[in-house]
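User: quick one, fold this
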Amino acid sequence: MPIYEFRCKGCKKIFEEFVRSKDYKINCPYCNSQDVDKLISTVSQTGNGSGGGGGGSCSSCSGTNCSSCH
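Assistant:
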């Protein structure tokens, strides 16, 4: 099951949800609203198979996770 990020239009909170099917109804876990937007997420690489670290796609990052740069 894929995990997607959503933003609630009511309370503006961002949350992740397992999506079981395209017809699955998403409720905000904070305010229970169904008025949510699916966010576009980036693909994350968790390892490169060589056992080494580094190599993030952001030139200003020193680690493998560029989310700390933003």
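User: anything notable?
Assistant: The chain has a mean pLDDT of 76.
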